[in-house]
Amino acid sequence: METMTSASSHISNKELIEKQRKFVQRGGLRTVEERKRVLKMLRDAIQSREEAIIKAVEMDMGRPSLEAYASEILYMYNEIDHAIRNLSKWAGRKRVSLPWLLIPGKAHLIPQPYGSVLVISPWNYPVQLSLSPIVGALAAGNAVILKPSEIGGHAEAILAELVNNTFAPELFHVVTGEKEVTMDLIHSRPDYICFTGSPAVGKIIMQEAAKNLIPVTLELGGKSPCIVHDDVNMDAIMNRILWGKCFNAGQTCIGIDYVLVQKKVKNTFVQKFIEFKNKAYGEDTIQSLDFGRIINEKNFDRIAGMISGDILSGGKTDRSQKFIDITLIDADENHPAMQEEIFGPLLPIITYDKIEDAIEFILAREKPLALYLYSNDKTVQKKVEENTYSGSLAINNTLLQVATTNLPFGGVGNSGMGSYHGKFGFETFSHMKPVLNKSLKLDTDLLYAPYKNTMRKLEKWVLWLSR
Ligand code: NAD
């Protein structure tokens, strides 16, 4: 399969990957200064296209400009600036101490790039989820091929233009196309794959990568629950819940998928949700300039098909505009919206009695990418923290656990493996090579044949050491 390079010549994906690997192995990005320069080029390339990026995500999914600016642009500046500031520290050798047998000698770990890293990204935060793992990959000294999602199309085009007009193909290149292109890239044997997308496609990617033992990081999705316990003040939490559901019209991997509400406070929850929703987006959500649209008809039909049963608020849809209203559903575990990740603005409510019941409900399902808990009760907080398993846990907040480069971002089990952001991204895309440097001055005959007297000597040593 042929790939278009920035020089407009055609080379195969295999040739491109080999070129990248050679570039890395010959020290193309060996120095910290060079890596910082490349990261700065990426920052400048984004900065000079801010308007085009905002426009692209608006055209793809009607994303309000403020949401686009915060999540696609500011987010990237933060990630890049943090990497530039800390790279010298991350990239240095790490000394380690040695046991008696290896003395005199020295040992250290040297972080080294894998080579050519393939990043496969989704459409929902097209710039952030493509470029933020790439910051870690470039900071670690790798060359990168990005295969953005073909869905939407405008964001894919701006990413290809931004990257291929800024970087030489042997350093960083965008390859576009459908799933056949992704498969060809994987079969062309990159040295590392970072995939962000659904668990179903994640399994295909891992299976194909395994054929050539290519290491993978999988950033996947699933149903992220939000527990609302009876001790909270609904007025204090409702904006956070509403925002966590409605940002990008619910098309956020760590967005709230469903709420588990303590029985006694269900009615207040519903009443406050509607009150706050009307305040934020108006009574007729379709008129709001602050609420996005569903990416395409396929997803529209999938999500709209889940609207059934006892609708507590919302429920309106308009296929011509790919609009789905913020819809609160009185649900149980058998409701259609509880059978798969919603990835849209529907919010099923399920009630529970005791916090242990909510925990059991979560434990009975796949490990979520994110778990949210709204409660000020320290015992409840501790119980949920210690007894549940998820990619991340945020207490009394939604989405903002990803707003710091000091916390890793990633899933566990069905929601993914591996993580990135800040230093964690650098480490994900580095092989920490152990180096032992032994002095020739002293040696021990304990190791070498003939072994005749070795056992007795060893026993003496062990006895002496355990005194
Ligand atoms: P997707 O899995 O359909 O697609 C992701 C990428 O895989 C795209 O680049 C697509 O072109 C490619 N792809 C799709 N089908 C393929 C196939 N059969 N073979 C090879 N490549 C294929 O996901 P999506 O619809 O783009 O995004 C939504 C999903 O991604 C949701 O499950 C969401 O939770 C998850 N997600 C996770 C994160 C995260 O950081 N953990 C972030 C965003 C989205």
Concise description?
This protein is α/β, with parallel strands linked by helices and 467 residues long. The chain is built from 15 helices and 20 strands. The protein has 2 domains: 13-220 and 418-431, Aldehyde Dehydrogenase, Chain A, domain 1; 225-408, 3-Layer(aba) Sandwich (Aldehyde Dehydrogenase, Chain A, domain 2), CATH 3.40.309.10.
Give a structural overview:
The chain has 467 residues and is an alpha/beta fold. The protein folds into 2 domains: 13-220 and 418-431, Aldehyde Dehydrogenase, Chain A, domain 1 (3-Layer(aba) Sandwich); 225-408, Aldehyde Dehydrogenase, Chain A, domain 2 (3-Layer(aba) Sandwich), CATH 3.40.309. It is 40% helix and 19% strand. The chain has 15 helices and 20 strands. The strands form 5 sheets. Strands 12-15-16-11-10-17-18 form a 7-stranded mixed β-sheet, sandwiched between helices. Strands 7-6-5-8-9-19 form a 6-stranded mixed β-sheet, sandwiched between helices. Strand 10 (225-228), helix 9 and strand 11 (258-262) form a beta-alpha-beta unit. Helix 5 (128-139) packs across helix 14. The relative contact order is 0.13. It binds nicotinamide-adenine-dinucleotide.
Gyration radius from CA atoms, angstroms:
26 Å
- Counting helices, strands and paired strands, the structural category is alpha/beta
CATH H level, superfamily name of the largest domain: Aldehyde Dehydrogenase, Chain A, domain 1
Beta strand count: 20
Task: Give the % helix.
Answer: 40-55%
Number of domains: 2
Task: Tell me the CATH topology of the largest domain.
Answer: Aldehyde Dehydrogenase, Chain A, domain 1
CATH architecture identity of the largest domain: 3-Layer(aba) Sandwich
Biggest beta sheet attributes:
7 strands, mixed
Our measurement of the CA-to-CA distance between the termini, rounded to an integer number of angstroms, reads 67 Å
Sheet-strand content, in percent, reads 15-25%
Bound molecules: nicotinamide-adenine-dinucleotide
Number of helices: 15
Main β-sheet, spatial strand arrangement: 12-15-16-11-10-17-18
Mean pLDDT score: 95
What are the segments in which pLDDT stays under 50 over at least 5 consecutive residues?
4-8
Assigned CATH class of the largest domain: Alpha Beta
